[in-house]
């Protein structure tokens, strides 16, 4: 009877500990939900007045300003530009993190996304003296996804790679099919990321304390957004890097079979 009592006591204690843990997790989830709702609401509220300020600053810029006023105007413009970037990054992160905003996934060929992104980032790369290349297969690489989100995913990785690579460096964007996945790799020969930083990389607002990285401006929201978009597409992201040598980000997404092209009528007319 003593043994049974003892076992029962132990079981009861385990049950209580589990219940405490369950409540703690639920509390943390509520805090996290509240935090992201607050951020989403705040960025929404900030967007409208910011648009008004930017618009008026632009009009003011066309006026005949004396040199001192011109300098003040320029400082205000830079400040609002910076604020606009932060607010837009926050809004996008809030949108892709919102469980009430489900993913609208359509079949799309990621090679198109790659070409668009590379065309967009290429001028920045050229201006910096960074060689940018795109490598993709001749056949379609189809995933089920949201074109705007995947554009941001590839765009953030490619622009980071260019941003954190100095003159004379190389950035390669590659797409390939591996078993039932579409694999994107973005590699650079840039400043690299320490092992310690690699563990923090996907946390919102994280920015490395590496002076070479801090020379570039940023919000620390780009990679969090990339990881969130990959996760909601059923994919995953990995990083491999060595400080001073470069970094490779790999995103794997579930592949979808290509949309069957309709059988074209025969054109043998001669
Ligand atoms: P940021 O706006 O600061 O670039 P991200 O979330 O995109 O924000 O990246 C977070 C941090 O990760 C950056 O501040 C930088 O230190 C580091 N990082 C991201 N991509 C690279 C890269 N390709 N090479 C080196 N460091 C990188």
TrEMBL record:
It comes from Nocardioides flavescens. This is histidine kinase. Residues 41-257 form the Histidine kinase domain. The chain holds residues 332 to 601 of 605 of the full protein. It is found in: Cell membrane. Residues 254-267 have a biased composition (Low complexity). Residues 254-270 are annotated as: Disordered.
